[in-house]
Amino acid sequence: MLDEIDRGLIHALHIDGRAPFSRIGAVLGVSTQTVARRYRRLRADAALRVVGLADPHRAGRAQWLVRLTAAPHSAQDLAHALARRADTSWVKLASGGTEIIAVVHTPAGGGHSLLLHDIPRTAGITTVSAHYLLHSYLGGPTAWRGRAGTLTERQQRQLAPEDSGSVPTAGPSLTDADHALLTALQRDGRAGHAELAAATGWSPATVARRLTALQAGGVIFFDVEVDDAWFGATTQALLWMTVTPAHLEQVATTLAGHHELAFVAATTGRTNLVAHALCPDPAALHDYLTHRLGALGAIHTLETAPVLRTVKGAGPIAPAGEVRRLPPRSG
């Protein structure tokens, strides 16, 4: 599995996805070469990747959590078709392989072609439900605690960008000219200024200034993708909950503090709160559901959808031929 240096490196990338290997090495107490070597190994073995993402509100985008049910023989093909689209992220196969769950990004003012046109006309889909993401309490720039518990507070301060403690200003906003920059960062959030300059047609100095401004203003952030099985999270599930509206804020805030959860959001629909749980095994998931969630009386209903596979994460799907190895078996 992962040793302390691997975990420290991943935690460091969650704090600053573009931090130089030299700075990460200094904080971890190892050489720059060691950090670079570990990063390459984790990319090959654990599907580690840093991706640059736009804040949906700043980018004028709405997010929907879509649940599709399909026949077993067609569900995988449909999941991969959704994953290839630029307007989707976090495409997962769940519930025995017959359910597909995906985040769909749409223009805030309309233009819902996937929801209104493409999905209804797709053969093999038996049921569809779309849930508008109203508010995220955990996820996005905030890492799952299972990945972000290695570095001390002092080490985290040493790695934090200089302006991370400031409140994002009202600007800048994403423009059409930023599209090429964001597309390149979605593929590789650690791409160098020269590579980003080639993708945008700007000079490296212009890329550096624009990237600094967008990141400081909270317009973009950097997420880390990695196979959570390497952290011992071999059992995952999406939890769909119905909570008394008067207690929704309190319950959601409480859940956002649970170590077992990587994502918590309020949604529209028959259920009004969704969470993503990562646990070591089914027994641990059962214990979490019955004891920690069971103790919250404001949760009236709970539906558990086991996640079998993540077909696509936050960024575009990996190029063909990039193979992810399975984590070693414990024991």
TrEMBL record:
Q: Per the record, which residues fall in region Disordered?
A: 152-173
Q: Which domain of life is it from?
A: Bacteria
Q: Name one GO biological process term.
A: response to amino acid
Matching entries from SUPFAM superfamilies are given as:
Dimeric alpha+beta barrel, Winged helix' DNA-binding domain
**This chain belongs to which protein, by name?**
AsnC family transcriptional regulator
Biological source species: Streptomyces inhibens
Q: Which UniProt keywords apply?
A: DNA-binding, Transcription, Transcription regulation
Q: Which InterPro entries match?
A: AsnC-type_HTH_dom, Dimeric_a/b-barrel, Tscrpt_reg_AsnC-like, Tscrpt_reg_AsnC/Lrp_C, WH-like_DNA-bd_sf, WH_DNA-bd_sf
Q: What's the short name of a Pfam family annotated to this entry?
A: AsnC_trans_reg
Domain HTH asnC-type positions: 2-62
Gene Ontology terms, MF aspect: sequence-specific DNA binding
Q: Key word Transcription regulation present in the record?
A: yes
Q: Which GO terms describe its cellular component?
A: cytosol
